[in-house]
Design goal:
By secondary structure, the protein is mainly alpha-helical. The protein has one domain (about 5-175). It has eight helices and two strands, in the order αααααββααα. A two-stranded antiparallel sheet has the order 1-2. The longest helix is centred in the N-terminal third of the chain and has 29 residues, at about 5-30.
């Protein structure tokens, strides 16, 4: 087993275990005052992805079903940090920075498909889930409150799936991204 393979097999299960917490931490960016519209849009698109009925990898797929969600949250955080973040509180900026830093591993793992994932996540700003478009989430306090409530509910009810430390899971994961990401 290569060093990179071992690194992915060690890290990805931790991302599955922390997915609920990661979503809540990223949602705190939307609650913080002073965050720029571009950074808020990147974060809202990533969080809203959790609730898409047709995501890149169906959540029920053994071992890898929620890894696309974990990847999308990290890419969204990375995109948000590239925006003028505005007057962001230090704790909020720390959340963004930690998830964005982990995006380097996503970039490394996906290789040439990373650009397609990043483009897909950028496009989530224009998408909708559960009838909530990102523009509406950012413009309507009630819709934002509903999304934040859904994130808290997701975090409470989320149960991390198992992730077998087998190279075949990495092969399946790459294959899904290769097949499902828009070309």
């Amino acid at each position: 087993m290569s060093e990179d393979t071992a690194k992915y097999l060690d890290t990805f299960p931790t991302w599955l275990r922390s997915l609920g917490d990661d979503a809540e931490h990223l949602a705190s960016v939307l609650e913080a005052s002073g965050v720029s519209p571009g950074a808020r849009a990147a974060v809202a698109g990533g969080i809203n992805y959790l609730f898409k009925s047709l995501d890149l990898i169906p959540d029920g797929i053994d071992d890898i079903g929620y890894l696309d969600d974990a990847f999308v949250l990290r890419v969204a955080a990375d995109l948000a940090t590239r925006e003028e973040t505005g007057d962001v509180p230090a704790d909020t900026l720390k959340v963004l920075a930690e998830l964005a830093e982990q995006c380097d591993l996503v970039r490394e793992f996906l290789g040439e498909n990373y650009a397609r994932l990043e483009s897909y996540v950028l496009g989530l700003r224009k998408g909708a889930a559960r009838g909530r478009a990102v523009a509406d989430i950012l413009a309507d306090e009630a819709m934002l409150a509903e999304l934040l409530s859904d994130v808290r509910g997701f975090a409470r009810s989320y149960s991390s799936p198992s992730f077998a430390r087998e190279e075949k899971n990495l092969i399946k994961l790459r294959a899904f991204f290769d097949a499902k990401l828009p070309k």
